Structures are given as C-alpha cells and as structure tokens.
Amino acid sequence: MTETLLFFRQLLSRPKQISAIAPSSRGLARAMAAGLRPGDRVVEFGPGTGVLTKAILAAGVAPQNLTLFEFNPDFVAHLRTSFPGVTVLNAGAQTAPAHVPNGVNAVVSGLPLLSMPLAIRESIVKAAFDILAPDGTYTQFTYGPRPAVSDAQIARLRLKVEQTAYVFLNLPPARVHKFTRA
pTM of the predicted model, to two decimals? Predict the structure, then answer.
C-alpha cells in the first residue's frame, strides 16, 4: 500500500488521532530535519507514514541512531518494513524516558499537539526534555499561528522557543518551532 493511501485510510478510520488533512510535505520534512548531523541520536514522536523520518535519515542520521514512537499499529507495521535498522516502538511519546537513555541530541515531533488536552501536551514535551542532552532540541510543527505549547507551559518547563521556518507549501501551511532549555 502506498504511503498516501495508508495515510488517508487512517485519516478516515481515526480522524482525531491523525488530525491532518494531508501528509506532511517534503519541504516541511526538510525544515524539521534542519540542523541534524551524522552521529546525532534522534527520537521522532508521531512519524505516521515516515515523511519526516526520510528527511531525518537524509540529513545523515544513521538508522541505528533513530528511534520512532508511533501509537498507530498500522503505521508501526509500515515503518518497520520501510526503515530497516530504525527502532520503531508502538508506544506513546510520553513513555520515551522508559525506553530511551537520556543524552539524545534531538527530538522531532509530528504529533498533533493542538488537538490534545493540555496535560497530555505537557507530558509529551516533558518526556522529550527528560531524554534530551542539556543542549538538545525539541522541534515541533504546528498549523496555528503560535507554538503548540502554551506560554504557561513553556515557562513551567523552563524552555525557550523560536520559530525556525514557515512552510507555505504544505497543506495547510505550517510553522516549525525549536524548543531548548532556557
């Protein structure tokens, strides 16, 4: 099954879980992977069909240095077939500290945070920073005009955020935000 067909089948059967009207564009994927380097240990939250995963690997991250957290079992099966050597876990992102040793260079997230309750959103971002190295980055895209994490949560988690890209050629257009420790 093609990635696009798989995406749309999941969108129809699990619309709240998918929360997007189309797969991420290659341009958005490149913007999300910007700054990754060979040798980096990277974790991806919510890889879906693997559009961002391809960009992460194209940036030079070795498959053995990439761990994916995907909750949807159909996506998990597809990812395991499509990306040999990459660790694919059928688990929620907030469980990352139980599965990944800390010291990760980057967490890249395609999760639809804005469609999640605030407490779950915060637990996911906290999990990312629990596994990140002190200078590690958490990259998240959103379709909204502001970061997917509220100002109060950013302050509570002691983070700083900057918009690093606006990808007009994505459906819908998306903003990329990098979060680091303040």
Answer: 0.91
